[in-house]
Every structure is written in C-alpha cells, then in structure tokens.
Design brief:
Blueprint: E1 8-12, E2 15-22, E3 29-33, H1 44-50, E4 55-59, H2 77-91, E5 97-101, H3 103-114, E6 121-125, H4 136-143, H5 145-148, H6 153-165, H7 174-181, H8 186-198, H9 203-206, E7 219-224, H10 233-241, E8 246-250, H11 257-260, H12 262-273
Parallel strand pairs: 3-4, 3-5, 5-6, 6-7, 7-8
Antiparallel strand pairs: 1-2, 2-4
Helix pairs in contact: 1-12, 2-3, 4-8, 6-7
C-alpha cells in the first residue's frame, strides 16, 4: 500500500480506522469520505490537489481499505456516521469542509442531521441519499450474503473485479482496479465484502431524506452523467430537496467520478470550497 499509505490509527466504536492528513496544519480543514466498495484511495488525486490550499483528512471506514475487518463488525451506515462523528472529535476539527462520495454521502448526511456534526460546506459526489437505491446485483448479494461468502476465492475475485470495474464509464487502469480489489481478497477481505453489502439497508437513508430541507450550509452536488449505479436524475431530485444546493454535472464520468474525471471534479470542488 506504499502508493497511498495511511499512517495513523484511531480506535473507533466499530474497530481500528486508518487515516492520514495532507497539507499544512492550520489551514481550513477538508474531510473526504469514500463510498462502497472503495476506500480513501479513490481520493488520492483530488486530496493531493486540495492539500495545496487546505489541510485534508482522509480515512478508510471500518471494514474497508486498510482499516480493521472482523467477524460481527458493525459497518452499517448508522455505525459509520457515528465513527465519523468520533473522528471529527478526535481530530479536533470543528465545522470542516466535507466532500463525500456514494455511501459516504449518506454517512455525512446522517452525521450532520442525527449526530450534530457541523460543516462549513458540503459537497456530495454521486451520493447514496434517496430511495430507491441498490442495483439488482447489490440486492441479490445482500439477500444471500452467506452463500456468496462461500464462493471459491478465484470466483469471488472475478466477481469483485467486474463489479468495481462497472463503476467507471471509461474503464479503470488495470493497476488502479487491482488496488481497489485488493482489500477484498483473502479470507478476511472476502467475508468483509459480503458483510458490508448485507448491512447496506435503505432504512438508514429513509430515516433522513425528509430532513434534507434542514440543511443550512452551502451544498454542491456533483454527478457523473454516465453513472449506471445511481441515475443522474437523482442529482436533480436531491438538489431540489436541499435549500440553495447547486448541481454540477460531470460529463463523461460514471459513478466513480474521481477516476473518470479527476481534473473536472477537482476544479468544481476548488471553486466551491474556496468561495467565501
């Protein structure tokens, strides 16, 4: 993992979290949240660019990437929102700029609306936020996670590789795809992959989606126009629910916008985050 080392550890209520910080301490803090089945690695290019102006915090959620994975672990949206709130307190970061992708979008929204986490601004990138969500494949695996967990390692690896690859419109570089698949291989990784899908319950967004009108911070919603995981129409629906929210379509990008259009996404984020 030398290409993206997370050098610090926080003992959260859902297991050890690996995290790190880029940029000079004391600058305006930005926190990046990844989605599923990814890790903070997808933010590497954006994080390094934002670190020229900000102190950037990156972390792998419990059960993901290089963070701890174990049997019986609670990796639900509810648990991740609690962990995020714990991390903000651990870092001593009050009212950061928050940028969240996919599942991380729901985590940031729950932390804000249910746990009192305060933000200066919020940018959501193809977020899991509105019902219905979850592809037919995702729902199938969630219903039969115990069966899929018993797949031979080679078949499991091929399934994960195909699934993660489908998040990109242009197609992922083989080395990047290898890096994103790697945490889900081996016995602990295979079990963790199906565990996080089994716990991905829509009720965690159902609980908050009628409260999006309470969001009072500047909000940007970026959406890959070629997203086949969550339709771009959801972006229009979401901004209509959040007062003053702005939609930034990203042409030529699928669900994994950070990989498909990193320059375009970074430019949109810099403009938004640096606006007084």
């Amino acid at each position: 993992m030398s290409d993206w080392p997370l050098t610090r550890t926080f003992r959260s209520s859902s297991g050890a979290v690996r995290w790190d910080s880029l940029g000079d301490p004391g600058r305006d803090p930005v926190v990046l949240l990844h989605g599923t089945p990814f890790s903070s690695y997808v933010w590497r290019a954006v994080a390094r660019s934002l670190a020229r102006r900000h102190q950037v915090y990156v972390w792998d959620m419990p059960g993901y990437g290089t963070s701890e994975k174990f049997a019986g672990q609670d990796v639900s949206l509810a648990a991740q929102a609690k962990v995020f709130t714990e991390l903000l307190a651990h870092w001593g970061v009050d009212q950061p700029l928050v940028v969240a992708h996919d599942f991380g979008g729901a985590v940031s929204l729950r932390a804000h609306l249910l746990h009192g986490a305060r933000y200066t601004a919020l940018a959501l990138v193809d977020p899991v936020a509105l019902a219905p969500w979850g592809s037919p494949f995702f729902r199938l695996v969630g219903t039969h996670a115990d069966v899929f967990e018993q797949l031979p390692p080679a078949l499991h690896g091929a399934l994960v590789r195909e699934y993660i690859g489908s998040a990109s419109s242009a197609g992922l570089h083989p080395a990047v795809l290898d890096r994103l698949v790697e945490p889900w291989l081996g016995a602990p990784g295979q079990a963790a992959f199906y565990r996080q899908i089994a716990q991905a319950d829509q009720r965690y967004t159902d609980e908050i989606q009628d409260r999006y009108g309470e969001i009072g911070v500047p909000t940007l919603v970026c959406w890959g126009q070629d997203d086949t995981w969550i339709p771009a129409a959801k972006g229009h629906e979401l901004v209509a629910r959040i007062p003053g929210a702005h939609l930034e379509p990203i042409a030529g990008a699928g669900h994994l916008v950070q990989e498909d259009a990193p320059a375009e996404l970074t430019a949109a984020l810099i403009t938004f985050l640096d606006t007084p």
